[in-house]
Amino acid sequence: MADSQIDDPKIAFAYLRRPCVLLTKEPTLSNVEALSGHLRAVSDGALQVLQDYVLFPLRFVLKTPGPKREGLIQAVLETVAYVLGSTCVRSWESVRDLFSELCVCLCSPTDPGKPAPTSEELKLAVLHCLDTLMHSAYGDVVFRLYEPTMLPGLGAAVSLLLALAEEEKARGVQVAALGCLLSLFLQCDCPKMHVKAKDEDKRALGSVLATFLPGIIRALSHVISGDVRQGHKVTVKAMRVWYRTVGLIMADSQLPNTEIEKVESVQLGRVGELMVKRTPSWRKATSKRLMLALQKVISFTSAHQHWRVRLELVCLSDHLLSTCSKSLPECVGPLLEALVGTVNDEEPRVKERCGGVLDEVARRNQAAGDRTLTDVLSENLHGLASALPRLMRTTDDKRKLFLLGAFLGYLKVLGPRVDSVLTSAVHLNRISKALMQVLELDVMDVRIVEERSFAPLADLGPDTDEAQYQRKCFLYFTDDKIFSALKHICRMLGYYGNLYLIVDHFLELYKESSVYRKQAALVLNEIITGAAGAGMETVNHTQYSRINQEDLKCVILSVIEEYISMNNWHLPTASEDSDHELQEKLQSPVLSVLTSHEGNGLQLFPTSTAGPKPPTLHQLNGNIWQICIQLEGVGSFASVLGTNFRPLLMTSLYPVLEKAGDDSLLVSQSALSTMRALCMACDYHSPKELVISNADYLLNDVSLNLGRPAIQPHAPRVLAVMFAHSDASLLPLVADVVQDVLMALDMSYDRRSLQLCTVLHSLMKALVRWFPASYRDRRQSSPVSPHVQDPRPLDLRQFLLDYRKQKDLAEGIGAEQEDPDITEIPPAPVAHDEEEEEDESPDVKPELPAHVSVAKDVMERCIHLLSDPSMRVRLKVLDIMELCVCVLCEAENELLPMVHRCWPALLQRLTNDDPLAIPRAFRGPLDKRFLNESLRFEMIPKSHLYETNSCAKLQVLCVLGETCGDFLRRRVSKEVLPRLTSSLARQAESSARAGPVYTHMLAYKLQLAVLQGLGPLCMHLDLGEPSLSFAAAKRG
């Protein structure tokens, strides 16, 4: 079609004459479409010549009175838009008439001030035609539209377009109406050609539009703050009309010439009364009103979910700051706040644009006016810090995140000038107190104290998965992004501020009150991390000279010393009475329940009227969080110093290991994470290497502190953690310390037995882990059935000697004698060389291996502690005995006498002990779950106490049967098995009549434990059929 277009105006006139005449006579849709088709065949040059002729029949259809079909009008408007888009309107009369006719198409016939209730398509056609008219107006013709005489017509058009943008539900119509406003105000940013306005034209346009400014601001603010379902395009377009209109009317370049405006007002007559005089007083009043509208716009768009809206907010701030900073002095603060609040936007394009705008603002305002940029920013920062605690309590998370982003933006824009701001005591106090209040932790959750580690060293092995720092719960916010923003603020303060000044200030707050201690520690950790430049990024400053390593090391050392001081490190994390009651006072938890039940209420841990008041739940939770935060600080300090932290290990490693063995689960997990941070920072491959490399001075501190339990009561914890994180190379170094532990146990068994037994338990677990071959080989070599034949030839002499030894030991003959000739049985002759060696020194007893000697010494203490009044101590001692047996199984000559010595005490436990000792009766998956359920102190009828007592400690008995074999067969069959079978018989009667609830009772669990452990015990002891017939019948 482009190649066959008509270029000659005469030919084009002849070609278009017939459809134009036909449309004038018969205004139908088909005739409009015919004319539109003919127009496509005419070139733009020929159509420019025939513009008025072609537009006449189309405008005639629009002006014809009477009702018309919407389809016809829409087709006419589309054809008019095509003609206007292909030509230029050079006649002012044509522009004026077309403008009026299009406005009439938009307004309602009954109420000209409101849009007509027409279809969405027709409205779009009218708006498109109006926009095309504004773009096709040629030269100075368009500026006559803004003469004061056109004020009523222009006002009507602006009102119609604003009403469409505000009230219309269709997004397309809203966007088109806002686009028409931009074109009408000569602020369109489309790629088409636009008329460039001179300063006089801009001034005339601003004077006319100032009359409509209140209505424009009100309507557009309502659109911007409308429902988010209207879409981001409508919001972005409304914002663009808002700030471009304000920038045109309130531009600094249009500061009024009052003389000219007075002359114009006199010449205009009554129309001049409608004109607004932009006097200084008017500008001042308008600036204050615009500040309120601007704050509303910023509040609705700063945290908008779509990034293009936030990007438009940056453009709004840039445009107004660059064009209206003098005319709108009250708006500079909110505009800067909007910019700094977006400087950390998650969208890279918004962040990049905001950074560029801030750079330009900083350069433009560096030496402008009475107030420099630093003054404005510091004043805004002070105001935000003052209002931050209140806003964090009253606003939602999105608003909180924006406020913190603004805070961080102020610091980034200030850059190195933060140091000068913080030298003001007023600013520093306000910022610090704001951080203290905002970072207040929620310490009322009872789960913090409840999360105890009953076996704190069970999961401390070298293969443990890396533990993460516990997520903190704050009082005034829950979103992790808010906490990240607060940490970034603290790091920025440390990066740009004077580190010595800031650290001293927050250390004073740390010492001032326990209310601020946790928050101050959090801030100190992040400030020092930021001072080292960890994770820092800048906006205006590519490089900044940070503090040197020596100064940073001195600051870190002073903070660590404050953290690990006696008053800040050794804080109670559990009720003091609970441990004492469980260890010393409660001989039976069931008895405690019964005793409490007889009183007025159930009280597990009775309080004493004498002595200091026990800590409250609030205080215990606060202590736990404080220790965790301080541990995190030590780990972060090590991360920023790297290998330079190694000299500080002598100060910090011992306290960290002390907390790794804490009973609180949160504290122990935080300490483990700190240990891993120390490993990474100091180039250790694992916590095991960290402990072994520093074992010398650690053991020295442990040895000293074991003798000072009143001052350093937690030295056994450090030793227990060292055992968990080490290998057999530690045993020679720790031998003397183990003897100190055993001596301390002998001297203070009535006060510290549970704590020291925990250390011995971790020691024995370590020995089993370090020397696993002997026990594993013993288990693999032990016969499963007595019918399995040994392939080696039978040595009759050795058999008789072994039989006599086993019989004597079983009857208690010769077990206490020290003569090696009696306690030792000569081995069978295997080779001639071995016989000669034994004949040369028959009376010399070989030296025991170190781990066997240690296990023997530990087991000797266990014999005496089996009758301890504390149930927890007895359970812990049984665990230790089981591990001792596993270690001593490779030295049978040492094991059997020790078993003989402990048998009376063990038998006493088997026949007369507390029911809650039953979880130790058997090995298997029931242990942890069963212990937790048992610790609920479930009520047990007195008729079942005998049955439960008869089952206690069978777990240790199973291990002894597996390792000692024939040595215990007679004792078990004579002293243990009858009690077990009779107990099962009595329990069978009650369980047979029990219902489904019985499976949840303690008696059921006890019965199940006995039945599951009795079989392996009998198998290991090779008990005969007569001894098992009754038990087998009850078990079946």
General description of the model:
Residues 13-346 form the TTI1 N-terminal TPR domain. Residues 812-847 are annotated as: Disordered. Residues 759-923, 954-1028 form the TTI1 C-terminal TPR domain. This is TELO2 interacting protein 1. 67% of the residues lie in helices and 0% in strands. It contains 51 helices and no strands. Residues 454-467, 539-543, 577-610, 781-791, 815-841, 921-952 and 1030-1036 have low confidence and may be disordered.
What characteristics describe this protein?
1036 residues, mainly alpha, 51 helices, 0% strand, disordered C terminus, ARM-like, TTI1_rpt, TELO2 interacting protein 1, TPR_TTI1_C
* Rg, Cα atoms, Å: 45 Å
- Biggest β-sheet description: none
Supply the helix-strand structural class: mainly alpha
| Helix content class | 55-70%
Low-confidence stretches: 454-467, 539-543, 577-610, 781-791, 815-841, 921-952, 1030-1036
Region (Disordered): 812-847
Domain TTI1 C-terminal TPR: 759-923, 954-1028
Domain TTI1 N-terminal TPR: 13-346
InterPro entries: ARM-like, ARM-type_fold, TELO2-interacting_protein_1, TPR_TTI1_C, TPR_TTI1_N, TTI1_rpt
In short:
This protein has 1036 residues and is mainly α. 67% of the residues lie in helices and 0% in strands.
Note the topology.
Blueprint: H1 9-25, H2 29-39, H3 44-49, H4 51-63, H5 70-86, H6 92-106, H7 120-136, H8 151-167, H9 171-184, H10 199-209, H11 213-224, H12 232-249, H13 258-268, H14 270-274, H15 280-301, H16 307-323, H17 332-342, H18 348-364, H19 373-394, H20 397-414, H21 418-422, H22 425-438, H23 447-450, H24 480-496, H25 499-512, H26 514-531, H27 549-563, H28 566-569, H29 576-585, H30 589-598, H31 617-641, H32 649-660, H33 665-681, H34 687-693, H35 695-706, H36 715-724, H37 731-747, H38 749-770, H39 773-781, H40 796-810, H41 820-823, H42 832-840, H43 850-865, H44 871-888, H45 892-911, H46 927-934, H47 945-951, H48 954-964, H49 969-993, H50 1002-1021, H51 1025-1035
